[in-house]
Protein backbone atom coordinates (compact mmCIF):
# COMPACT_ATOMS: atom_id res chain seq x y z
CA UNK A 1 0.00 0.00 0.00
CA UNK A 2 1.31 3.36 -0.98
CA UNK A 3 0.98 4.97 2.47
CA UNK A 4 3.69 2.75 3.91
CA UNK A 5 6.09 5.15 2.16
CA UNK A 6 4.79 8.24 3.96
CA UNK A 7 7.51 8.34 6.64
CA UNK A 8 10.21 7.80 4.02
CA UNK A 9 9.00 10.71 1.88
CA UNK A 10 7.96 13.60 4.14
CA UNK A 11 8.61 15.97 1.22
CA UNK A 12 5.54 14.45 -0.47
CA UNK A 13 3.12 15.34 2.34
CA UNK A 14 0.89 17.29 -0.04
CA UNK A 15 0.05 14.00 -1.77
CA UNK A 16 -0.50 12.13 1.49
CA UNK A 17 -2.69 14.91 2.87
CA UNK A 18 -4.87 14.82 -0.23
CA UNK A 19 -5.35 11.03 -0.29
CA UNK A 20 -5.54 10.19 3.41
CA UNK A 21 -9.19 11.33 3.67
CA UNK A 22 -10.07 8.98 0.79
CA UNK A 23 -9.03 5.96 2.83
CA UNK A 24 -11.49 3.88 4.81
CA UNK A 25 -10.33 3.15 8.38
CA UNK A 26 -11.50 -0.15 9.87
CA UNK A 27 -11.12 -1.47 13.40
CA UNK A 28 -11.72 -5.18 12.96
CA UNK A 29 -11.48 -8.36 15.03
CA UNK A 30 -9.24 -11.34 14.32
CA UNK A 31 -10.44 -13.73 11.60
CA UNK A 32 -11.86 -10.92 9.44
CA UNK A 33 -11.44 -11.59 5.73
CA UNK A 34 -10.53 -8.48 3.75
CA UNK A 35 -10.29 -10.36 0.46
CA UNK A 36 -11.48 -13.84 -0.51
CA UNK A 37 -9.53 -16.18 -2.76
CA UNK A 38 -11.08 -16.07 -6.24
CA UNK A 39 -12.45 -12.52 -5.85
CA UNK A 40 -10.92 -9.53 -7.66
CA UNK A 41 -9.03 -7.15 -5.35
CA UNK A 42 -10.29 -3.56 -5.49
CA UNK A 43 -8.60 -2.24 -2.32
CA UNK A 44 -5.02 -1.69 -1.22
CA UNK A 45 -4.52 -2.31 2.50
CA UNK A 46 -2.28 -0.53 5.00
CA UNK A 47 -1.82 -2.05 8.47
CA UNK A 48 -1.78 0.52 11.26
CA UNK A 49 -2.12 -2.06 14.05
CA UNK A 50 -2.35 -5.83 14.13
CA UNK A 51 -1.33 -8.75 11.99
CA UNK A 52 -2.71 -10.11 8.72
CA UNK A 53 -1.92 -13.22 6.75
CA UNK A 54 -2.38 -14.30 3.19
CA UNK A 55 -3.32 -17.91 2.53
CA UNK A 56 -4.83 -20.17 -0.12
CA UNK A 57 -6.97 -23.28 0.04
CA UNK A 58 -4.95 -26.39 -0.82
CA UNK A 59 -7.47 -29.25 -1.14
CA UNK A 60 -9.31 -28.19 2.00
CA UNK A 61 -6.20 -27.17 3.95
CA UNK A 62 -5.25 -23.53 4.44
CA UNK A 63 -1.66 -22.85 3.38
CA UNK A 64 -0.23 -19.60 4.72
CA UNK A 65 1.81 -17.57 2.26
CA UNK A 66 2.90 -14.50 4.22
CA UNK A 67 2.36 -12.35 7.33
CA UNK A 68 1.99 -8.56 7.48
CA UNK A 69 2.38 -6.30 10.51
CA UNK A 70 2.27 -2.63 11.48
CA UNK A 71 3.30 -0.07 8.85
CA UNK A 72 3.18 -2.63 6.04
CA UNK A 73 1.01 -2.47 2.99
CA UNK A 74 -0.43 -5.27 0.93
CA UNK A 75 -2.90 -6.31 -1.69
CA UNK A 76 -3.27 -9.24 -4.00
CA UNK A 77 -1.06 -7.39 -6.46
CA UNK A 78 -1.75 -9.31 -9.67
CA UNK A 79 -5.47 -9.22 -8.92
CA UNK A 80 -5.34 -5.52 -7.98
CA UNK A 81 -3.34 -4.39 -11.03
CA UNK A 82 -4.71 -6.76 -13.69
CA UNK A 83 -8.29 -7.16 -12.47
CA UNK A 84 -7.89 -10.93 -12.00
CA UNK A 85 -9.28 -13.25 -9.31
CA UNK A 86 -7.03 -13.28 -6.25
CA UNK A 87 -5.05 -16.51 -5.77
CA UNK A 88 -5.30 -16.10 -2.01
CA UNK A 89 -7.34 -14.78 0.91
CA UNK A 90 -6.25 -11.85 3.10
CA UNK A 91 -7.36 -12.22 6.74
CA UNK A 92 -6.61 -10.60 10.10
CA UNK A 93 -5.16 -12.91 12.74
CA UNK A 94 -5.15 -10.30 15.50
CA UNK A 95 -7.61 -7.50 16.23
CA UNK A 96 -6.41 -4.93 13.72
CA UNK A 97 -6.72 -1.38 12.49
CA UNK A 98 -6.36 -1.14 8.72
CA UNK A 99 -6.84 1.49 6.06
CA UNK A 100 -8.29 0.67 2.65
CA UNK A 101 -7.76 2.78 -0.44
CA UNK A 102 -9.66 1.97 -3.62
CA UNK A 103 -7.88 0.86 -6.76
CA UNK A 104 -9.08 4.01 -8.54
CA UNK A 105 -7.42 6.27 -5.96
CA UNK A 106 -4.22 4.19 -5.74
CA UNK A 107 -3.77 4.34 -9.52
CA UNK A 108 -4.48 8.06 -9.51
CA UNK A 109 -1.94 8.66 -6.73
CA UNK A 110 0.67 6.48 -8.46
CA UNK A 111 0.19 8.43 -11.68
CA UNK A 112 0.75 11.70 -9.83
CA UNK A 113 3.83 10.33 -8.09
CA UNK A 114 5.44 9.23 -11.36
CA UNK A 115 6.52 12.85 -11.76
CA UNK A 116 8.53 12.65 -8.54
CA UNK A 117 11.91 11.19 -9.54
CA UNK A 118 13.09 10.47 -6.00
CA UNK A 119 9.92 8.58 -5.22
CA UNK A 120 10.20 6.34 -8.28
CA UNK A 121 13.79 5.39 -7.45
CA UNK A 122 12.92 4.59 -3.85
CA UNK A 123 9.78 2.72 -4.92
CA UNK A 124 11.92 0.58 -7.24
CA UNK A 125 14.40 -0.14 -4.44
CA UNK A 126 11.64 -1.09 -2.00
CA UNK A 127 9.96 -3.27 -4.63
CA UNK A 128 13.28 -4.96 -5.43
CA UNK A 129 13.84 -5.60 -1.72
CA UNK A 130 10.40 -7.18 -1.38
CA UNK A 131 10.92 -9.33 -4.49
CA UNK A 132 14.32 -10.42 -3.17
CA UNK A 133 12.67 -11.42 0.11
CA UNK A 134 9.97 -13.44 -1.68
CA UNK A 135 12.42 -15.16 -4.02
CA UNK A 136 14.61 -16.01 -0.99
CA UNK A 137 11.61 -17.60 0.71
CA UNK A 138 10.74 -19.51 -2.46
CA UNK A 139 14.29 -20.85 -2.79
CA UNK A 140 14.39 -21.71 0.91
CA UNK A 141 11.14 -23.64 0.60
CA UNK A 142 12.67 -25.80 -2.15
CA UNK A 143 16.22 -26.09 -0.79
CA UNK A 144 15.92 -26.09 3.01
CA UNK A 145 14.43 -28.59 5.42
CA UNK A 146 11.52 -27.48 7.62
CA UNK A 147 13.98 -27.33 10.52
CA UNK A 148 16.25 -24.96 8.59
CA UNK A 149 13.28 -22.81 7.59
CA UNK A 150 12.18 -22.55 11.23
CA UNK A 151 15.69 -21.59 12.34
CA UNK A 152 15.83 -18.96 9.62
CA UNK A 153 12.48 -17.58 10.79
CA UNK A 154 13.77 -17.44 14.38
CA UNK A 155 16.87 -15.58 13.26
CA UNK A 156 15.45 -13.20 10.65
CA UNK A 157 11.82 -12.62 11.70
CA UNK A 158 11.45 -13.51 15.40
CA UNK A 159 8.41 -11.23 15.73
CA UNK A 160 6.45 -13.86 13.76
CA UNK A 161 7.32 -16.52 16.34
CA UNK A 162 6.32 -14.15 19.15
CA UNK A 163 2.99 -12.98 17.73
CA UNK A 164 1.59 -15.65 15.41
CA UNK A 165 -0.22 -18.85 16.46
CA UNK A 166 1.75 -22.05 16.04
CA UNK A 167 -0.71 -23.60 13.58
CA UNK A 168 -0.27 -20.60 11.22
CA UNK A 169 3.52 -20.83 11.54
CA UNK A 170 3.35 -24.57 10.79
CA UNK A 171 1.23 -23.86 7.72
CA UNK A 172 3.69 -21.15 6.62
CA UNK A 173 6.61 -23.59 6.98
CA UNK A 174 4.74 -26.35 5.15
CA UNK A 175 4.57 -28.75 8.09
CA UNK A 176 1.94 -30.02 10.49
CA UNK A 177 1.55 -28.49 13.94
CA UNK A 178 2.86 -31.78 15.39
CA UNK A 179 5.99 -31.60 13.22
CA UNK A 180 6.56 -28.00 14.30
CA UNK A 181 6.31 -29.07 17.97
CA UNK A 182 8.98 -31.71 17.31
CA UNK A 183 11.24 -29.13 15.65
CA UNK A 184 10.83 -26.77 18.62
CA UNK A 185 11.47 -29.59 21.08
CA UNK A 186 14.69 -30.61 19.28
CA UNK A 187 15.80 -27.00 19.17
CA UNK A 188 15.12 -26.58 22.90
CA UNK A 189 17.19 -29.70 23.63
CA UNK A 190 20.03 -28.37 21.49
CA UNK A 191 19.77 -31.02 18.77
CA UNK A 192 19.31 -28.42 16.02
CA UNK A 193 21.96 -25.81 15.39
CA UNK A 194 22.12 -22.55 13.47
UniProtKB/TrEMBL annotation:
Signal peptide: none annotated. Residues 27-112 form the Cyclic nucleotide-binding domain. Pfam families: cNMP_binding. InterPro entries: cNMP-bd_dom, cNMP-bd_dom_sf, RmlC-like_jellyroll. This is Crp/Fnr family transcriptional regulator.
Amino acid sequence: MIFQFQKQFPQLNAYWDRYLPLQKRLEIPAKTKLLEEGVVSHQAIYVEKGCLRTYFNNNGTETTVQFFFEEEGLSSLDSFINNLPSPYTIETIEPSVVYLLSRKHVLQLMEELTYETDFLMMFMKITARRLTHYSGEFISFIRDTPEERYQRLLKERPHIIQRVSQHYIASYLGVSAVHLSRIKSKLAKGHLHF
